[in-house]
Design brief:
single chain; alpha+beta; paralog of FGE (formylglycine-generating enzyme); four-stranded antiparallel β-sheet; 28 strands; elongated
Length: 569
């Protein structure tokens, strides 16, 4: 018997019951003589209808039109709430569970509800979510590796100028799109550097594009010479040593006999007469370079700097070849040889550099165990990732923080008493939390337990989880999930953990409602911060993870204020 037939049968029986009183009065006046006259032959040839026909036809029309029992039918309809019953959602007999069309078994919702006559997914197994808000395909999104819903619905795992991937609900960088590179090793901004035009990372990370005393520009990953700076000249026409000759043109660049190189061609007073055989110094002594001399021939200075040793391009030989005062400077190259592939590691790209005439190899460090130090120790492009090792009464928030699983309570607190022992704070389930406590007492109680008060940012992170929820239980406000001021049974503080669904993604209970919680963040005028809202003021706004309640003075206390402790592992 299906559910529709059952419901119709119930309605029919109730109508029948409401008519029983009238039926009795009819029976009292009923003439039974026709029944006594019925014989077996009448039954056999189906003539029994004729026997009762006169009585049916004589029924009073007023009796047939009587609708006084319709209210009973309406009362019966209240038995089935088609607005909230998932087995009769929208209409009698419409079972939500029978109308799922799942792509795989893991898409099956962990909870289904009926809201306003519509089937709604109310919960999914870990790693799955209902991101398209379509009930029929259940928890269709696999947030563990869905780049469009990575970790939670709507988070698009797409890094700038890079190939990115979502694995285990974490967005990671796979590779960079050429010519871009991740030179700052920060995954959050993707491959931020365009090595085709970045003067500080030209062609590869950390390769600076520059020439001595000159302007340079990185074009198509190559360092291009763009002219000399004022007061310098590229006399030897070799850009590798930049603009090596210091000279500022004078006399509009026309050479005169004034002891200056007016036209900056490397010669002084070259058109002036001189005494044959006289000499004039030229060149300079620096590195491999050696000064020489010009000789006056036939009354004019010869243009050849005799006995001079001039600069050449720098080589890896322990000598200052370009005579700029630095040895083997600016010499870098990609790793050479058959083992060049060993030059790199997950922690970076290696290269070779010249030191005292010898090519040496820079190998980036190898991955190490991730620790809480704001560094990517294991070189997986995620800083301080992992799970902290915390005491049993605390839950880990990433790698760098432990937070009390429950609101702080006194050591002697019970389900019906908050206790009187103020020696240290505990984190236990099923006891009344420590309330009517000022900030200084809360701070001392945490320290006595080997912990500390949480900062406002730590508290928010523990409440929101990695998915950045608006409330500890999700993004949609539900007044019945936590002990707020507008929940179905408001009015008092409850034992810790009583609201089992009022839990953050990391497993911390009662971070919305029940009691407000002190944090260690300072505000002007010596005031301290509160978060979470309480059973008395815990509205939709106050119970948000990121909401900062108006700060109060440290010596303030109230029956609605408590705390919980944090610890750095």
């Amino acid at each position: 018997m299906n559910s529709v037939f059952k419901n119709l049968l119930v309605i029919s029986l109730m109508i029948f019951a409401s008519s029983c009183t009238e039926a009795i009065s009819v029976v009292e006046d009923f003439d039974a003589s026709p029944i006594q006259d019925i014989n077996k032959s009448d039954i056999a040839d189906n003539t029994i209808e004729d026997t009762f026909e006169p009585d049916i036809q004589s029924t009073d029309e007023n009796e047939l039109s009587d609708t006084s029992n319709l209210s009973d039918i309406e009362d019966t309809a209240d038995i089935i709430n088609i607005n909230e019953d998932p087995d009769n959602c929208g209409s009698v007999g419409y079972r939500c569970s029978e109308h799922l069309s799942l792509s795989d078994v893991n898409a099956n919702p962990s909870s289904i509800v009926c809201i306003a006559g519509k089937c709604v997914v109310d919960g999914c197994v870990d790693g799955r979510a209902d991101c398209n808000n379509k009930f029929e395909d259940g928890c269709e999104a696999y947030t563990g590796n869905d780049t469009n819903n990575c970790g939670y619905c709507g988070y698009n795992c797409s890094l700038d100028n890079a190939v990115s991937d979502c694995q285990f609900s974490t967005c990671s960088l796979v590779s960079c799109n050429k010519p871009f590179a991740n030179c700052d090793m920060n995954i959050q901004n993707g491959c931020e550097t365009d090595t085709s035009k970045d003067i500080n990372n030209c062609g590869m990370c950390h390769k600076e594009c520059k020439y001595n005393n000159a302007y340079a520009e990185c074009i198509d990953s190559k360092c291009i010479f763009k002219g000399c700076k004022e007061g310098f000249v590229d006399l030897n026409k070799d850009i590798r040593d930049g603009c090596e000759y210091q000279c500022t043109p004078s006399n509009n660049g026309v050479e005169i006999c004034d002891g200056k190189d007016n036209n900056c061609d490397g010669f002084i007073d070259e058109n002036c007469s001189c005494t044959p055989g006289s000499k004039m110094s030229c060149g300079f002594n620096e590195g491999r370079c050696k000064a020489g001399y010009y000789e006056c021939i036939n009354g004019k200075w010869d243009t050849t700097c005799k006995d001079a040793i001039l600069p050449i391009p720098e080589e890896c030989n322990g000598i200052d070849d370009d005579c700029n005062g630095e040895t083997d400077d600016g010499l870098y190259r990609e790793c050479q040889g058959s083992d060049a592939y060993l030059c790199n590691s997950p922690c970076g790209i290696g290269y070779e550099y010249c030191e005292k005439g010898v090519w040496k190899r820079y190998n980036p460090p190898q991955p190490s165990k991730e620790i809480c130090n704001r560094k990517d120790d294991d070189c997986n492009s995620i800083i301080d990732d992992g799970v902290a090792t915390c005491p049993a009464d605390m839950v880990p928030v990433g790698l760098c923080l432990c937070i009390d699983r429950f609101e702080a309570s006194r050591p002697d607190a019970t389900e019906t008493s908050s206790g009187t022992n103020n020696s240290y704070a505990t984190s236990r389930s099923g006891v009344l939390p420590w309330t009517d406590v000022d900030w200084n007492t809360a701070d001392k109680a945490c320290k006595a337990a080997g912990k500390r008060l949480c900062t406002a940012d730590e508290w928010r992170a523990a409440c929101q989880g990695a998915g950045g929820y608006t409330y500890p239980y999700g993004n949609t406000y539900n007044p019945a999930t936590c002990n707020g001021s507008d929940d179905p049974n408001p009015g008092n503080v409850f034992p810790t953990g009583k609201y089992s669904e009022c839990k953050s993604p990391y497993g911390a209970f009662d971070m919305s409602g029940n009691i407000e919680e002190w944090n260690s963040t300072d505000y002007p005028d010596g005031k301290k911060g509160l978060r979470g809202g309480s059973y008395l003021n815990g509205t939709e706004l106050y119970t948000k993870c990121a909401y900062d309640a108006p700060p109060v003075k440290a010596d303030f206390s109230s029956r609605t204020i408590g705390f919980r402790c944090c610890k750095t592992p």
